[in-house]
Every structure is written in structure tokens, then in C-alpha cells.
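so im writing up the methods section and need the Protein yippee-like record in one place, dumping it here so i stop losing it
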Amino acid sequence: MMSRAFNGQHGRAYLFDGVVNVIEGEPNDRPMTTGKHTVRDIYCCRCGTTLGWKYDKAYEASQKYKEGKYILERHLLVDVQ
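--- predicted struct ---
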């Protein structure tokens, strides 16, 4: 995990370099609090639940570090034993 200092649509979110067991959706441009980004929603490969998104492109220079990284929203994750 790279950072816990993110927020998603449902509250606290985490930034990761990579994730596993997800399916990436189609890219689309989305206005966000930190500017315009091209993102792909990511889904659980088993149940299809939306888990967050992947940053494909950041249009603001200060946000370029997010490109290729993933956001997982805590509220959308399920703890497994």
C-alpha cells in the first residue's frame, strides 16, 4: 500500500501500486476533486463487485504520480478469514 490518505465515493480509500484478482473496465474521463483523470473502474474477478478504480492518466502535472496506480475503497472491501 502506498497511501491511506485518499477518499473515494464511499469514504476512506487506499492507493496501491498493484492489485490482484480484479477485472478492469473501459477507460473514461472523470472529473475528480484533484482534477480531471482518465480512470477505469475495477471489479472483483469472482463476484463482479466494484472495488475502486485505476488511474490511466492524470491531466494535472501534480497528479501524474497516480498514473498506473489503483484505488481500493475501504467500504467496498470485505474481510475474509
